[in-house]
Amino acid sequence: MKTAVFLGPSLHQRDARQLLEASYFPPIKRDDLAGMTDWDVIVIIDGQFGQSLAVTPKEILNLLDQGVRVVGASSMGALRAAELDSFGMEGIGWVFNRFKQTWIRQEDEVALSYAPHDLSALTVPLVDIAHWMETLRHADLVTKAEAAAIFRALKRVFFAERTPSKVYDAVAKAVGDDRAAAIRSEADIPDIKGADARAALNHVACMKSTEHNDIEMTV
């Protein structure tokens, strides 16, 4: 299967290539999908907005109508998959499920700042905070009120300024220094976007393996 992956700060391309053999492109932007109807599978993980126009649902629908399989996860891919799964786009992972379960889907939940030379993440996206609070809540390590206060505090921090140190500063302001220290000792901030990116690439790798085995069996 001829496979393209649009990937950026969610997962280093070096690690991605160990999971899935494909052609890799930087975070997707408007018009990047033009002329890609001859691809079998397109995986959208990261995407641009702000500095460039975001890829539109219509661009993805055009590919789906041409029989191209489109998989989304982690970041922009999860957002578009939540919007288009009823039209055939496949969503993978926790972030996709979070967007799928709400009518209000905001790009700022997956937004982060990244280094242009190697696409590495510099700040913490809100979805990582949401997953962190969910994990702590399930383990009864934070109260519902504390989790809500922490999320609200970090939502007020501009995504390009939400560095790990500022995250912990905001947690301390929301619940106090002692509780913040206890929370920090229980669990690190998770990289849910990275986990979802890996899940999506493994999913496509399994698809390709299954197709290859089916072809061998019918020869």
From TrEMBL:
Residues 46-163 form the TfuA-like core domain. It comes from Aliiroseovarius halocynthiae. This is TfuA-like core domain-containing protein. It holds the Pfam family TfuA. InterPro entries: TfuA_core (IPR012924).
